[in-house]
What we know:
By secondary structure, this protein is an all-alpha fold. The protein has one domain (53-227). It is 86% helix and 0% strand. The protein has helices spanning 3-6, 9-69, 72-95, 113-133, 137-159, 165-196, 198-227. The longest helix is centred in the first third of the chain and has 61 residues, at 9-69. 22% of the residues are buried.
Amino acid sequence: xxxxxxxxxxVRNVTDELKGFEVMExxxxxxxxxxxxxxxxxxxxLEHTINNMSKWLVAALYGVLILWKHDAEALWVAMGCVxxxxxxxxxxxxxxxxxxxxxxxxxxGMPSSHAQSIFFGVFFAILSMVKHQGLNLVTLVxxxxxxxxxxxxxxxxxxxxxxxxxxVLVGGIVGSVFSVLWFQAWYTFVLHAFIAYLWVRIIVVLxxxxxxxxxxxxxxxxxxxxxx
Length: 228
């Protein structure tokens, strides 16, 4: 008798069931693995897109602020934003720390200019909300949303391997501190001088215009060229 004929019906049934179970398990693993890969791919693609759009989003928000408020404080914020960005460039050249291995960017990464610019805007928005609206439930919700949005956009620099965690943290801290100092300078003495003296108004307006023009030229030269 052959081996298959010598097996009892019970043994054959158990063997067939085990084989069927193995096939089902392999198919299930294949489907789950494919689904997990597809989800991971979509997640990374979405984060990559949001990260690429973040600089345009921040620039657009500053532009909307100037057009919406079109007052001295908005000009002061715009000037501070550009000076904060220049400070980031200077710190990068001084510290000269490399970006994470594998990134296509070759310029220094400490501090993260994205995180520094984002948290300059985040803290100026938070301080302005508390200053003008007081501390209440609405402003508290606004503070949480603004802080969460800024933190997420900054974290994308790490997830996309463009910066290390320390580079993003330092950028966020520098941007936050500079924002607080810039905000306090405006309400401590610049605003009063702006109202009292014509030459201060001229300096603030011309300085803001020069900073905005410089940023526009930088945007055209670097950001648009990168996109093309």
